[in-house]
Amino acid sequence: MAIYDLSRSICDGDPGVRVSPARTLEKDGWNASTLELYSHSGTHMDAPWHFGCGEATIDETPLSTCMGPAHIVRLPDTQDAEWLTVGHLGALAENFTAGHSLILHTGWSRFFDQPDIYRRKLPRISEELARWCVEKRVRMLGVEPPSVADVNSIEEVTTIHQILLGGGVTIIEGLVNLESIPTDHCHFAAFPLKIHHGDGSPCRALASDQPFPSA
């Protein structure tokens, strides 16, 4: 089984991240850290409660929805602030298997250290594509930007999240390393921290060329 790590490392100084020493080997006999994490930092999963799409919180996310077959759509020519539509899916728009996950590989993770591009010019899920995802019962929608919508527009970011989360689509944002997956089909998994009443959580996302044991 080939395993592909699709998660960004959590690093001190990244947006929403602070890591400081709590204990040191020299002083205390062991190393330990204090982590301060924004719930939507790095590679992360959103819960329906994030945008008021019901009461379901991140700790209530069924593990069965966190893994399964996925289709990868390669979009290397994605432009700044481009709307991603059903048309971007090509033949997959008609051939998608209900209940599978959808991963959009735009290459946007390469702009992580350029926040004016990464956060302000990100490609966005159109309302048309969001409704298609709900109609096709997409299990997880995975993207590389920090959001599926323009984080600088409260109206847009609310609308797109409410369509997806309210329609039962689990959102994974901030993916990396998608170019390492050699095919356009994989088995995708993303597991959040079990945060009580959490609106979202950093998660460990991975892909495999073979099914996961309980998928």
UniProtKB/TrEMBL annotation:
Enzyme nomenclature, EC number: 3.5.-.-
Pfam families: Cyclase (PF04199)
InterPro entries: KFase/CYL (IPR007325), KFase_sf (IPR037175)
Molecular-function annotations in GO: hydrolase activity
Keyword Magnesium found: no
Key words of the record: Hydrolase
This protein's name: Cyclase family protein
Organism whose genome encodes this protein: Haloferula chungangensis
